[in-house]
Amino acid sequence: MIADEAVPSPSPPPPPDLSGPDPAAVFGRLFDEHAVPLHGYLARRIGDQVADDLVSETFLVALQQRHTYDPSRAGVRPWLFGIASNLLRRHVRQEVRGWRARARVGADRAQESPEARTAERVTAQQRVRRLAGALAALEPGDRDVLLLTSWGRLTAPEVAQALGIPVGTVHSRLHRVRRWLQAQGPVVGGEDVDA
């Protein structure tokens, strides 16, 4: 019989030296390690094509601003997600307009030809419309906290570092958003938006 042994948790790797003479090698490693999770987060928010562009832009901005990286303030992962979140904000107006347009189109289609759709499609479209409308109605800061947590899979301290806000603010925003979404009904407050 094998005795249970406590497995020591691995210590975090030391912060990368972004100010060194050869940033290409360091950024190559950072890209290999963080591009896929960043792309996954961005793709869920804005789609694959724009996510491709924003991942590239995130690393370009990180390279250009590497002298501003302070490992005592944030790990490299939240720093990169923070850059990506800032880039996403430039797309927020377009994103919100698209969600609002989807909500309007869904309502128009329901009025034009409800008999042509199956009950399953109606349910799915209503769910997407309600979720899109709910996301569009959130304050940008609340939306960033919710989506970094649920789609980006960042911890509360990582979200705090990414957005430059206290951890307590992350928790209070998540609490407020989840209560509000649950109040909107079971479709919006269901599995799609919970972390």
TrEMBL record:
Keyword Transcription: yes
Span of domain RNA polymerase sigma-70 region: 30-97
Biased composition (Pro residues): 9-18
One Pfam family per UniProt: Sigma70_r2
InterPro entries: RNA_pol_sigma-70-like, RNA_pol_sigma-70_dom, RNA_pol_sigma70_r2, RNA_pol_sigma70_r4_t2, RNA_pol_sigma_r2, RNA_pol_sigma_r3/r4-like, WH-like_DNA-bd_sf
Molecular function in Gene Ontology: DNA binding; sigma factor activity
Ranges where the RNA polymerase sigma factor 70 region 4 type domain occurs: 130-181
GO terms classed as biological process: DNA-templated transcription initiation
Ranges where the record places region Disordered: 1-22
This protein's UniProt keywords: DNA-binding, Sigma factor, Transcription, Transcription regulation
Keyword flag Metal-binding: no
UniProt xrefs under NCBIfam families: sigma70-ECF
Entry similarity comment: Belongs to the sigma-70 factor family. ECF subfamily.
Protein name: RNA polymerase sigma-70 factor (ECF subfamily)
Source organism: Saccharothrix variisporea
